[in-house]
Amino acid sequence: MTSSWKDWALLIGFSAVILCLPILLEPIGANYPDLLQKIAIFGLFAIGFNILFGLTGYLSFGHAAFIGIGSYMAMWSYKLLTMNVLPAIIFSTAIAGLLAFAIGYVSLRRSGIYFSILTLAFAQMMYNLAYSVLTPLTNGETGLQTRAIRSDPNQSLLDGDIRVIDQAFGVEEIGVPTTNFFGMAMSGYTGFYFCAVILILGFFIAQRITHSNFGMMLKAIKSNQNRLNYTGINTRPYLITAFVISGMYAGLAGGLMTATDPIAGAERMQWTASGEVVLMTILGGVGTLVGPVLGAGLIKYAEQKVSSWNEGIIADFFSFLPDGLRDFMAEISSLFVGEGWHMTLGLMFMIIVIFLPGGLMEGFRRLSVLFRRPKNRETMKSATIPSTKPGESIAPRAAE
């Protein structure tokens, strides 16, 4: 498996854009750390989901289970070991991979809508367990939070933490304990750049998988799995591997969520979180490398910005219209902002699916073809129709 110069150019360009997001998103007011962190984390989540859905065609509605288990494992790492994020993201990725293997081993016995329903059922089971049976580990509706190191050995772990590694190295806590990466606080732009570097690494791994022999086999499964089975190829190991890799990406994203915001709750395992990553992938472009990240950025920007708009902002936007028309437009538009921002998301999703079935990446491809077409026509015209003088035939000039 070798990488062409186009692959390296894509990786370098992607890395440059991600690292420069605080500058690039400043004109639209989206350069604050909280939003940038979410774009990086959910971009990683969508890249991993695309390895399964985009390459194999298997649509999972249960990936929220992996992002939830990743969050819980990271929080227990903070409570038991250290506030350093490195062990947390390692444990969250590994445990999510084990859970993905268990769920995938059962769910991948079926395909199509049956596979999707099975993954949704497993995710909802995990969600309900987190709220009920596993309350001693998840703290139910309250969720897990980091606490100061307990002074009373009889104190519950939900009320006080141990952090044996931090205590062994004499790490002093001042105020509320915060996550760090060998002393660097995982907040603000530092937290974003930490997530951005992991996003770039995740993009590189996904790129290598896509262009590897393993990736070609996954694409063949998507193209015609029955034909592969008839030729004697067992596709099940490839599907389970893709499912596990995708689950590990989701677990890593869950670990990064707690790294930037140290709290874990069962709401991250709801079916709506699984549906959100499906929307991100479809909006950006299923089967593409950059598309899922674009879709994640678009949805998270709409969630933060459109949901914060109110009728006053809308009225100011239509202030150039006559009073009656301005009030009418403001009243209609208010249905799509604030708490109704999901209406905007649904409308945007409908438009893209109807006119750009390949997502935003298809739109970019159409634009690139549109801009290159006039130049190509002039080149073809000059190459096929040589210039001649009046009364001179083309054949003698061609012979020359």
Estimate the helix proportion, in percent: 55-70%
Describe the largest sheet. 2 strands, antiparallel
Estimate what percentage of residues fall within beta strands.
Answer: under 5%
Low-confidence segments, given as residue ranges, are: 393-400
- Shape, please? globular
Strand line-up of the largest beta sheet = 1-4
**Cα distance spanning the termini:** 47 Å
Average pLDDT rating: 86
The succession of helices and strands, N to C, reads HHHHHHHEHEEHHHEHHHHHHH
Class by SSE composition: mainly alpha
Tally of individual helices: 18
The CATH topology of the largest domain is ABC transporter involved in vitamin B12 uptake, BtuC
SS elements, strand count: 4
What radius of gyration results from the CA coordinates?
Answer: 26 Å
Main traits of this protein?
400 residues; 68% helix; 2 domains; 2% strand; 4 strands; globular; two-stranded antiparallel ribbon; disordered C terminus; mainly alpha; 18 helices; two-stranded antiparallel sheet; ABC transporter involved in vitamin B12 uptake, BtuC; single chain
Task: Give the helices and strands, then pairings.
Blueprint: H1 5-19, H2 21-24, H3 33-56, H4 64-80, H5 85-107, H6 112-131, H7 135-138, E1 144-145, H8 164-168, E2 180-181, E3 184-185, H9 188-210, H10 213-230, H11 236-260, E4 263-264, H12 271-284, H13 291-305, H14 311-317, H15 323-333, H16 341-355, H17 360-384, H18 394-399
Antiparallel strand pairs: 1-4, 2-3
Helix pairs in contact: 1-9, 3-9, 3-11, 3-12, 3-13, 4-5, 4-6, 4-11, 5-6, 5-11, 9-11, 12-13
